[in-house]
Each structure stands twice: as C-alpha cells, then as structure tokens.
Amino acid sequence: MPAPITPKHREVAQRAREARGGWVLAAVYPSADSGQSAARRIPRAERMPAYHPPGTYEAYDARHDDGTAVWVRYTAGLPKPAPRPPAATYRVCDRGTSRSYEGVRIVAVTVSPDCPRCGGPRGSAVPYRFHEDGEWYVVDKWKNGCGHTDMYDGVLTEARELAQIAAEAAFTLGEEAAEAGEFSQAVTLLRALERKQRFLTARRSALLLAVAGHNEAARRVEEERTSTSGRMSARDADQFLVGLAAARASCTDCDDGLINYRARDGEFVSLRCRRCRRDVVPHA
Ligand SMILES: [Zn+2]
Ligand SMILES: [Zn+2]
Predict the structure, then answer these.
(1) What span, in angstroms and rounded, lies between the C-alpha atoms of 121 and 113?
(2) 201 alpha carbon to ligand 2 midpoint, in Å?
(3) What whole-number percentage of the chain has pLDDT above 70?
(4) Ligand nearest to the CA of 258
(5) What residues flank ion ligand 1 with Cβ within 5 A?
(6) Tens digits of residue pLDDT in 83-134
(7) Hey, is 182 helix, strand or coil?
(8) Which domain, by its residues, includes 26?
C-alpha cells in the first residue's frame, strides 16, 4: 500500500490565487478514481474547504507519470478564461525515420493539449523561422509551463497514433450515418469510436473529434464538459451534440450566434446566444 497522501490544498489554493488564471498542479493521486473525485469536488468546494466558495476554482484530472494529476486554476474576479482546448496543433519538423539525411518536411500535428508526463497544459505555439538547404521554413516552438520538454519525435508519434484511432473508427462507419444536423459526421464518428473503445471519456472524445477535423464539435463538447465539471461520457457527448444541432437549427433568437440589441444609451450590444453556443467575439 502506498502511503496515504495528504495534498496540501490550502497551499495549492493560495498558489492558484497568486497565479491568477494559470494552472497549478494540486496533487498526484495513486488511483485514477481519487484523482477524478478530487477534480470534481474542487470546483464545488465539496469536502474541500480550501477552495471555498464554490465556483471560484476549476480543476481537471490527467494522466501523470506517477498516477493521476489534478490541476487547478483560480478564476474568480477574472475575465472568464477560455475553456481548455480539446486539442493542440503544432507545426513540427518531420525528418523521416531513416538514418540518412532525407531533408525536412513540415507537418501540422494535432495532439493532446496536456503534457504526456504530468498532464499540465502544453504551451502555446510560437512561430519560428529557420533556414536549411537554401530554403526558409516555419515551425512552431512551445514551452510547457510544467517544465517538461516535448520532442518533435514524441509529438509525431502521438499524432500518428491518434490519427490512426480516428481513421480506424471512420473506416468501420459503413453506411450508418447519424442524424444530427450539422454535427452528423462528428456524431457518426463518436458512435464508431464508442463501439471500439469502452469507457471512452468526453475529454478523449473531444480530442479525437479534433484530430478528425471536427473542431467545432470538439470545442463544444469540451466547453460543455468543463461547465458541468464532471462526468461526461462519449455517449453524453453524442447526445449533447444531437441536442445542440437541433437547438441551432430551430433558433430564431439570434443572428449567427449573436443576439444584437440596442441598449438604453443607444449603443448596440451583441451577446452570445446561449442556445447556439457559437464562438463569437462579443463587440459591445
Ligand atoms: Zn509536464
Ligand atoms: Zn441562437
């Protein structure tokens, strides 16, 4: 039996407040169940007094070299931070696998947004220009806040594995297309993935949707998963997308996701339509 861990939640809550919206590693649990349970209880401050009052912290669990990590961020009093992305896309160098020099190819890879070692958020892409063999190339560099460095070979392998899972599911689809309006293709893929992988989580579903190019569906699933802070399976994600497609098709409240009105002072104001949940940049 590993020694019982006593995560220092008071200290973590304090560090997260100081990091103002930045993710902080709260604890690493030996079992996935306890990690998931902590990640669900932190936003509700349920048996977690350090995170009082409810709704001031967000949390997620992710795989860590030593178990299941729980990451926390403080969001109270800040502009609402963007939900965690369902996937990360980077341009990287692919130099092939043979020992001899084959030159360089730039490929865009879609991978998990979490560091594979500790589950911390991967860094944002920063374009980097370099010169080789008389040509200029642009790739992305990124620095993970956790300090772990991603190697190009590692992300290339991860991207290939994910792409293969999505491709194999797409291959078994056959003729059974789901009826889900604009999300029909995404939902069809989700159902094929569910059939192949038991216990597929919504988080993993969102990643695989992004890998298959269904970015809008992936973002909406991730947003919904975050706002319900908890248990959402691939099946729930599937039903959520069916409902969202129907809501969008029948919505008469908004103009392409925006509800525009004129405020009392004469200014025009646009608000995001909560039924349609499109990505919009509100301009007030
Ligand atoms: Zn890391
Ligand atoms: Zn609408």
Answers:
(1) 6
(2) 28
(3) 95
(4) 2
(5) 115, 117-118, 120, 146, 148
(6) 889 999 999 999 887 777 778 899 999 999 999 999 999 999 999 999 998 9
(7) helix
(8) 9-74
